[in-house]
Amino acid sequence: MAIAIILYSLHGHITALAEAEKEGVELNGVQCDIFQVPETLDADTVKALGGKPSTYPIANREVLEKYDAFLLGVPTRFGSMPAQWSSFWDATSALWVKGSLHGKLAGVFICSSTGGGNESTIANVVTTLVHHGMIYVPLGYYNVMKKLSRMDQIRGGGPWGSGTIAGPENEREPTVIEKKIAREQGRKFGKVYWKTIH
């Protein structure tokens, strides 16, 4: 019994949040492993975009069948998921037909360059989860209200899921507050998962 974090992270922002999410999950004594969706860009394009190579194992259909619950790290592209995530989900039709993911839990955390599209990206991911019959677990405001409502600094995320804002040139790194919110999302998600298996 375990939770998988599956992500796509070109510049490392989602990766930083994923590590915080993992810390939160494991506070519940739950095993948590991190995977990445396959890259659809060639190596030269990734380099030209300033991409940071990731060393996580690649997620595939077997990972989706093996794990019981998922936290999904999805950067926003024009208010929706990027091509790498779309391609990943497009390859799951056999699982959809069999109902392999039905009833499994899923939460989402995001990154955008400006803060625009945060909630719409998660809503678009939830549409896919619904087609698979998965159960979306939002972050909500409980235990993070003060962090999510702070006005003294820029902050990504919201009640749909934790997040960060990378800046127009991906120059901004996730802040301590953003990582704390991600950690709390992982903790709460792990707690919900733990309750479902006991």
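The record above closes out task 2.4. Task 2.5 opens with a second protein, given below.
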Amino acid sequence: MREWTIDAGRPAAAYELSKASEVRRRPGRPPEYVFDGSFTMRLTTSDDRPGTVVGEFRVDGDGWYNYFGWPTDSAAPFLFTDKGTVIDHLSYGGIGKGRHTIEYRAIDAAGNVGEPRKFIATLR
């Protein structure tokens, strides 16, 4: 006899940022973090079922990017700078100065996509 369990639950993602020089909270809007230089972001994921959960993020509505830490160290958070960091001829984390919307979400092993959430990062 075989049994099937349907996983219809959505996974979740949370973020942790390096210390901002200013945090702006406005009712009904995502939080805004102001940085005077580069900043880091770590994503963590959770689900109600066992299995791999992948975190993703995107900047300013661009394509979703799988979060795996920093390209040279999976234990390190992702680094954002105004010009980016070149590793093996690819540039990572370049967002330019100004105000940016960063969305994040999780996808579980069953393919369920968590609700995207967002925050604003301003790089001065």
